[in-house]
Recover the amino acids of this structure.
């Protein structure tokens, strides 16, 4: 049922929707336009709002692997970001699946998860100095392994919480039935619970990967060159440095934004379907 | 199966997580407390015990007071704006109009954009010589000459807040929209029959459903805003004239630029304390809101 609207209200609503769409899209679209505009267009006064020619060469520049070029630096940081986010995500999931299940099935220990989640509100600056000193003494500064380890401070509490709520949605009666039939706990988890939990594992892993992909503060502190510097730090350096071509900065931004934006658009469906398709299926 | 064994087994499954969390969060937290009572430098031998010196110096310094003010200003203004714009956007998206599904999908865009990319994007938009904002405002006649939006203490903080809002209001909007869609249709219909105007309807019929989820959004956003570092570091590095230097930026400078680990740690703990007090206070508020809604 829909309430009746006057023509004026309908026009206002559509105008507001259009305004909202423009506010959301315009900055992102401008980033893309800058990335494909000839350099001269970007230093014109007033600006050329539409590129005088489509110029995709910056994408080729940044993704080239010619040694010591801007591209080599960018590609190295891209690889570092994938490595750090990938390793941290795998480790976080490996910790979160057993812990999430344990808390979900054993309310007596749920306070320990509350404690872990409470660490989420700690500002990273509160841990940064000791972590820096510890990484330095283990030789893990400027290392993708060291950074991935530090990222567990953010990823592990978050994934554990997601996994716990995921396991809460899987009825323990199913597990009890399997164990009644003589399956061991390990077999029950492997054959019954984990397959049911796979969508939640995937969702948690995607979220964790995006969190790590986004991270800047620790990466800024604990990396110094190509061996470990991640994409966010590389982009911040480009933005703050003396790059004469603004289009190159914009291109780096578009490339770094592409994976999370795509995942976000795809995840939206997964999230909504996850919300609507609850309940035990026979 | 005995419940003791169940509990023991649960602890065993928790153990890897607890060990790692102790190593990367628990121990560093305790070490930060220890360092805050010393004059330790970032590199070199551990410093000497200096009691409460770091705290006394820090809390009485004008740098701290200005950073506390800047942080509070940033958090209050940006979170308020995000809540208001987010709720308005959700109310709009709860109406029927052409392209609603597309607009809702677009909301993901700012949210998914990495914070550093967002900061870089707005830095380009605010560019004093060739930025899109200067060009657009001059072209429509609102501005006579180009301005350095991020270079003047009078506009830098506002420019930052706009950039932060743009990225974060969609999250509030998505949370509020989910809550709005849980409002039963027959209740709004009944209030319409009873002759409630749009404002009365929002206040008495819709707001009770929104209050709980919005409180959660408010808590999360406020905590994030008080911890803010990335967007400010990339856009202004705390300048100009330290007008956008928030607490996290100040800790970074103290501990890493000036390598004063001891006083940096004491400052970091003060920030932690502020965030904790906020979180606990809000938590109690959330519980009360949830209680009154039930």
């Amino acid at each position: 049922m829909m309430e009746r609207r006057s023509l004026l209200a309908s026009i206002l609503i559509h105008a507001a929707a259009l305004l909202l769409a423009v506010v959301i899209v315009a900055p992102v679209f401008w980033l893309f336009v800058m990335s494909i505009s000839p350099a001269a267009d970007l230093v014109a006064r007033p600006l050329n709002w539409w590129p005088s020619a489509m110029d995709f060469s910056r994408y080729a520049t940044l993704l080239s692997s010619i040694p010591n070029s801007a591209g080599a630096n960018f590609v190295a940081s891209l690889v570092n970001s994938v490595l750090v986010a990938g390793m941290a995500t795998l480790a976080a999931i490996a910790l979160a699946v057993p812990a999430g299940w344990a808390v979900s099935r054993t309310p007596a220990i749920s306070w320990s998860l509350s404690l872990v989640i409470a660490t989420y509100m700690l500002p990273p600056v509160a841990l940064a100095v000791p972590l820096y000193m510890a990484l330095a003494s283990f030789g893990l500064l400027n290392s993708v392994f060291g950074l991935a380890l530090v990222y567990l401070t953010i990823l592990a509490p978050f994934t554990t919480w997601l996994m716990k709520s995921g396991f809460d949605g899987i009825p323990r009666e199913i597990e009890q039935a399997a164990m009644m039939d003589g399956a061991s706990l390990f077999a029950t988890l492997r054959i019954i619970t984990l397959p049911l939990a796979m969508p939640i594992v995937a969702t948690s892993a995607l979220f964790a990967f995006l969190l790590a992909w986004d991270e800047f503060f620790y990466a800024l502190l604990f990396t110094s060159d190509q061996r470990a510097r991640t994409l966010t730090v590389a982009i911040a350096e480009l933005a703050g440095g003396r790059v004469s071509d603004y289009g190159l900065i914009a291109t780096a931004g578009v490339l770094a934004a592409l994976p999370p934006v795509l995942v976000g658009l795809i995840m939206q469906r997964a999230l909504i379907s996850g919300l609507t398709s609850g309940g035990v299926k026979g | 199966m005995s419940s003791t064994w169940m509990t023991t087994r649960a602890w065993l499954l928790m153990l890897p997580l607890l060990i790692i969390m102790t190593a990367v969060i628990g121990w560093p937290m305790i070490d930060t407390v220890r360092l805050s009572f010393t004059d330790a430098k970032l590199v070199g031998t551990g410093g000497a015990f200096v009691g409460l010196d770091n705290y006394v110096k820090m809390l009485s310094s004008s740098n701290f007071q200005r950073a506390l003010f800047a942080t509070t200003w940033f958090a209050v203004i940006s979170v308020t704006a995000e809540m208001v714009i987010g709720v308005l956007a959700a109310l709009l998206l709860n109406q029927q109009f052409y392209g609603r599904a597309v607009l809702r999908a677009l909301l993901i865009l700012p949210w998914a954009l990495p914070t550093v990319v967002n900061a870089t994007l707005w830095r380009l938009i605010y560019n004093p010589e060739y930025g899109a904002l200067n060009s657009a405002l001059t072209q429509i006649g609102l501005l006579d000459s180009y301005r350095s939006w991020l270079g003047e203490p009078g506009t830098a903080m506002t420019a930052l807040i706009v950039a932060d809002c743009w990225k974060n209001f969609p999250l509030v909007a998505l949370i509020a929209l989910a809550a709005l869609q849980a409002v039963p249709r027959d209740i709004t219909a009944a209030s319409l029959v009873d002759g409630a105007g749009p404002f009365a309807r929002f206040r008495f019929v819709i707001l009770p459903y929104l209050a709980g989820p919005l409180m959660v959004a408010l808590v999360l956003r406020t905590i994030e805003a008080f911890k803010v570092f990335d967007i400010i570091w990339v856009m202004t590095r705390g300048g100009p004239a330290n007008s956008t230097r928030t607490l996290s930026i100040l800790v970074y400078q103290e501990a890493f630029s000036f390598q004063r680990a001891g006083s940096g740690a004491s400052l970091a703990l003060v920030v932690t304390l502020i965030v904790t007090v906020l979180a606990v206070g809000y938590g109690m508020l959330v519980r009360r809101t949830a209680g009154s809604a039930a």
